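Run DNA topoisomerase (ATP-hydrolyzing) through structure prediction, thanks.
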Amino acid sequence: MGDLRKSSMRFFSDQNLCYADILPPSEIRARIEVAVLNFLRILASPTPAISDLPLINRRSSNSRASKGLLTQVSCVFLSHSFCTRSLMRANTAKAFIRVWKVMEMCFGVLVQEKRVTQRELFYKLLCDSPDYFTSQLQVNRTIQDVVALLQCSRYSLGIMASSRGLVAGRLLLQEPNQEVVDCSECGLSGHAISGDLNRLETLILNTDARYIIVVEKHAIFQRLAEDRVFNQIPSILITAKGYPDIATRFLLHRLARAFPDLPILALVDWNPAGLAILCTFKFGSIGMGLEAYRYACNVKWLGLRGDDLEMIPEQSLVPLKPRDLQIAKSLLSSEVLQENYRRELEIMVQHGHRVEIEALYFHGYDYLGKYIAKKIVQANYI
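Sure, done. The structure for DNA topoisomerase (ATP-hydrolyzing) is below.
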């Protein structure tokens, strides 16, 4: 019985494959069916048992860093340590059942050839299984459990990214058989990034830009778009309005693949959260589990930087909060953080203050474009 229990639920959890495939719906349905049949086989065996679910451990202690020896792109990924969801242990029994409920829902979505967001899935599960799903976080974590079990991307499960992202500037977008969208003519609101990753993958892209500029804040993005900075500095502007969502990261990765010679430059606040946002674009995030590597890009830190403090009025300095220090501690413990970023972060902590991009308005509302141009020259990206 012991051997049966150890092997029966290893559907696709090959210990040498710690990544999630993008697979067609038919393959995902087949994997879910195999999971169910294996489970029923155990229950109907002469020595019935309920097997554990072996999942790749998504804790930060199981993360490793690829240093990009053959390319300029480094990324975080999960190593080969496993954890389990067990119906026989009180602390994981509900999590065990949640996995099966989410797989059931995803199977139904794929059969209907639909796409749902994580939020839509939460409300469906809340109504269907209120004893097991009481929060969005439970759904999000269970989706990652299913990704880890079946080793497929969440998009392959029929789960669509909910996008906050915008793009503006010197970029022409065209879906197959659709009209061309000129992102330089979308005004200060920019062009909304679709949450449908398949649509993003099939976009026809054209640009005469020389840079891609990732902007942390929506308000700064709007200022740059309104000032048409992309005409002064031939560029594509992209923002996720804060911490990056999957769709925005996917589009940035798509742009990096389509235009590999364009430097990707990040404009973020000088604080631990700004650096964390930059690092998520640059390295991926462990929170994405087996999909983390898929969205990594070679993003450069344009600003704000410590050497900009001399142009910032003292009144604009804001003391670091406990949350800032917590983020800094987490970043400093990461093996993927490169040495010059580490030094910059240590300066932030020692200085004890944070600076937001808006502090540059001290020099005038039209100063941001001049600042970006100066930093590009200083960093020799020209």
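Residues 1-17 have pLDDT under 50 and may be disordered.
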